[in-house]
Amino acid sequence: MHKLAFKSVLLGLLLSIGTGAQAAPERFVLDESHVSVGFLAGHARFASVLGQFTDVSGGFVYDAEARRLVSGSVTVDAASVFTGHEDRDGHLRDGDFLAIEQYPVIRFEATGYEPTGEDGGILRGDLTLLGETRPIELALTLNRRAAHPIGGADTLGGSARGAIHRSDFGMDYALEGDLVGDRIDLIIEFEAIREDG
Question: How many domains does the chain have?
Fold first, then answer.
């Protein structure tokens, strides 16, 4: 009887330790001063134009222990497109490309995450551009999680790469002869800060 009682207490203790050790999913918010959503678009097969969007916000809920993305979304202000050339940026904002008057926001909504190693995996989600929503995949690398050297906030940094075909979203201007390439390579770098509570 004494042995049975001892085993019950031990089992209860182990279960309580196990339960206590499990970390709850945590919410992270993108640091808007340290997030870059960039792109490469081919120009007549001579070279690629490098651009980015300068107004990006969003966040995600991540279970680090289970390496599971619970939810996540990113919003991009389409008018913030920047390639370093004023006339070209104006053209990108008009109806030939981003049509910002009709579609001011580009949105990514995460639908799943599949770890492929200790430091990353495949991030899946729905991208809405020009009113069309299509599934995309991004190769995600989780670079580092640590207290930020400036301010000490719990920070997670990552890099993502992927590609879309703009014609999938109805953006077909200058496709003929690859004057502007159909494939758009995506370059994403971010720091996200854990929210307390």
Answer: 1
Q: Each residue of 127-136: pLDDT tens digit?
A: 999 999 999 9
The CATH number linked to 65 is 2.40.128.110
Structural domain range at position 127? 24-194
| pTM, two decimal places | 0.87
- Quick: pLDDT tens for 37-92: 999 999 999 999 999 999 999 999 999 999 999 999 999 999 999 999 999 999 99
3-class secondary structure, 22:
coil
